[in-house]
Design goal:
Layout lengths: L2 H25 L3 E6 L7 H16 L4 E6 L7 H10 L4 E5 L22 H9 L1 H8 L6 E11 L1 E4 L14 E4 L3 H9 L3 E4 L5 H6 L5 E4 L1 H6 L8 E4 L4 E9 H4 L4 H35 L3 E4 L2 H11 L2 H9 L1 H17 L2
This protein binds D-xylonic acid.
Length: 340
């Protein structure tokens, strides 16, 4: 072969390779999906976000890629919800409590003492009631995929051990941006202030607020024990997280792509609940070891608080509608009857 011919062949081969690589690169260009969440990477939320990302990558053969962004770097729950509705962000996981302004039926999950254990939570959330509420998001531009467990919420503060309702007097307490939480804690005597979770650590650190309420897992992963001395085991409400997709984005996906996201969301849900429950069962000992002073409410104080909080039930019934409220009570009776 002449040297000219050799060069020519090599150039052809390279060109062919480049051309086919170009086509290939276009084919496998992953759909990049931003998935925002509020807690740290080192949290139950962060761990499950990673499981979700891996499951999407695997399920799509690498064609869809999740960029999970924690610590509210894409915005607070409320800001992300707006971004999803507007189509500026693809996915998120966050509290259902901040969705109540958008879909009033979400208020069901704010009911104090509604759910008393993990089994009830899973059946209610994954069953027809949870599905019905989730479906309501669609008309607002959101697609709910699955519920994750945030968990049973407990009270912390830097002022004093809360052993009775009166101990909450004058305690400036951060609550989620949700009227039921706001009214509930006002009813209990606290000076409740709504605030985004993303601002909470520094608000506690600078004593802008004295206390907050969140599950043990979050108190641990967000290092609230560094700025909160007292923890009262109240378990006042079971709170879910919800994994959502922007409807604008969802509608651009093929059925197969939607299925990849849904299947991965279910994988992440099962992982997340197991992981959260394991962590929660050990977290109290961890928090004690970190120096928190922990107390449980005695039975009569717990029921005093409970009675006070049940007054918000009427407000919730109105918000979610009486049919759904009654359906929920019946479903809980059915689940509880099964256990006997
Ligand atoms: C994290 C929040 C958090 C929630 C809260 O973004 O705001 O207190 O419990 O988990 O969604």
């Amino acid at each position: 072969m002449t040297s000219l011919r050799r060069t020519f062949t090599a150039a052809c081969a390279a060109a062919a390779l480049c051309a086919s690589f170009g086509a290939l690169a276009q084919d496998i260009k992953p759909r990049l999906i931003r998935f925002g969440y509020g807690l740290n990477e080192q949290s139950n939320q962060g761990r499950a976000a990673k499981v979700f990302a891996d499951a999407v990558e695997k399920g799509s053969g690498g064609k869809m890629k999740i960029r999970a962004v924690g610590a509210a770097a894409l915005g607070s729950d409320v800001q992300m919800q707006q971004a999803l509705m507007g189509g500026a962000q693809e996915m998120m996981v966050g509290s259902t409590a901040t969705l109540v302004g958008i879909t009033k039926e979400m208020a069901l999950w704010d009911t104090p003492f509604l759910i008393s254990n993990a089994k009830e939570a899973d059946i209610l959330l994954d069953g027809p009631i949870g599905e019905k509420i989730k479906a309501k998001l669609q008309e607002k531009g959101l697609v709910g995929l699955v519920y994750w467990e945030n968990g049973f919420r407990n009270l912390t503060n830097s002022k004093r051990a809360v052993a009775k309702m009166e101990d909450l007097d004058g305690v400036k307490l951060r609550v989620m941006q949700n009227n039921i939480y706001l009214d509930s804690f006002k009813m209990l005597g606290a000076n409740a202030v709504p605030m985004a979770f993303s601002e909470l650590f520094s608000a506690l650190e600078t004593n802008t607020v004295d206390g907050q309420e969140n599950p043990f897992n979050t108190i641990l992963s967000s290092k609230f024990y560094e700025v909160q001395k007292y923890l009262t085991v109240t378990n006042h409400v079971y709170s879910p997280w919800i994994v959502m997709v922007s409807k604008k984005y969802w509608d651009q996906l093929s059925k197969a792509e939607q299925k990849v996201l849904m299947d991965a969301a279910k994988v992440s849900r099962d992982f997340e609940r197991k992981d959260t429950r394991e962590e929660a069962s050990k977290a109290l000992a961890d928090l004690k070891a970190k120096g928190m002073q922990i107390n449980e409410l005695n039975v009569s104080e717990a029921s005093r608080m409970r009675n006070k909080l049940t007054r918000v039930y009427a407000q919730i019934g109105t918000s979610v509608g009486m049919d759904l409220w009654i359906e929920t009570q019946n479903e809980l009776m059915r689940i509880r009857g099964q256990g006997k």
